[in-house]
Each structure stands twice: as C-alpha cells, then as structure tokens.
What does this fold into?
Amino acid sequence: MRIDVSLVPGEIAAKDVSGSVVVIIDVLRATSSIATALASGCEEVIPAESIEEAITLANGYKRSDYVLGGERRGVPVEGFDLGNSPQEYDGPRVAGKKVIMATTNGTSAINKYGIAREIFTACFLNADAVIGACEAYDDCDLVLVCAGQDGRFCMEDTLCAGLMATRIAHDKGAEMSDSAKAASLLYQQRKGSIEDELLRCDHGAYLVGIGYEQDVRYCSRNSILDVVPKVYDRRVIRRARGGPEE
It folds into this structure.
C-alpha cells in the first residue's frame, strides 16, 4: 500500500485513482455533517454540486422522504431545511430520511472520483472507523483528498489527512508520498492542539465569526462516531462492517 494526499482539490486527478481507495475529507463541515447524519440513522446522503441540482434531485422524491441541507459561504441556503451544521444532522430530523446536501467544497469533491475502487468520506469525528476500513485494503493504494476551501489549501483537512496517513503507515508499514509525509509531519506537530488549530485556521476563524464556534469545536473531536460513509452510485451510505467487498 502507498498513501498519497491531495493537499488541494484537483492536485490528484480523478483519472489517476483507478483501482485506489479514495477518502474525501472536508472537516469544516461537509464530511462531519455526513458522518453525523449517517450515525443518526439517515437512509443516505445524496451530494449535489449546486443548489440548483439539490432542488432538482429533491423534486424526484416525496416531501416526507427527504430533508434538504446546504450552505453557501457557511450560511444556510434560504428555503432549505438544514444548513451545514453537523449538530443539525444529529437526531430525529434525519432518521430514516434521505439527506440531499449541497455545500461549497465537500459535496462537489465527493462526486469527482467515481472510477476509484472505493470512496469513503472522513473527518476527525469518524477517523478511527475509516482508518480501520482503509486498512482492510492491503492490495491497493490509498488517496486522501483534502476538499480545501475555494480551491485552496486548508489546515483542518490536512491535519485530518495527516492523522490518517500517520496511523495507516504505522499499522500497515505503508509507503508515503511527499505530500502524505508533509501532512503527517504537520499532524504530529499539532496533534495536541487540534481544537485550537481548527479555531485558528482560516475557515474555522470565519465560522467562529459568523456564529458557528460550537460547530468548529464539535468537528475537532476525535473518533466519537463509529461510522464509515461509503460513496456508492453517487450516494453516501453507511458501510457494513467487514473486509473489502467483492
């Protein structure tokens, strides 16, 4: 196994991940919301690349079967049921329902890597569970994709990728690319202050400034959710426990 990290969106092209396991990371806040929704019993998360696409997808279902969630610039979309606060996806509002979600960075990234062998989504909240799932794939490479912020590097996704790369390299003796080594070194330097790092990073500070400090603090919690979100047919479902599926 070789571990690679896309530190910014598009650094590793979709055509280059054939046969690899890909993990999409958008800590603040799309993949944190997805993990929380699936852990709360939602049927599936359907990622949309735009507000318009989310509305079009929603029109294909009964109103009682789904909730519509999303944000632009961190702010809930007018007319949607939920924004992108992970704690909105915790509980009966999403249980048994489809969640149709459109966010600025994360949901777009999820839809880009369809030719990969497997696609998971991860964040700090479910890091241990996703690490365990990835470690079952001894016979292929692992690509950790940081969703970034508006096409740029962001600290929070890189720290999460660094956590995953560090653990998997240690557990499996995996080789790391230069970018994976850089993410690992950054994580090892900052692992004792993840909450503070998220509060200080560009997007974390922005979210604090518009009233979402509790979201940032929640998203910094390590491995409190035992859920592996798996992308299947452009939907994110809760992966069953066990080894690689045939």
Remarks:
- The chain is about 35% helix and 20% strand.
- The chain has a mean pLDDT of 94.
- The radius of gyration is 17 Å.
- The longest strand covers residues 66-72.
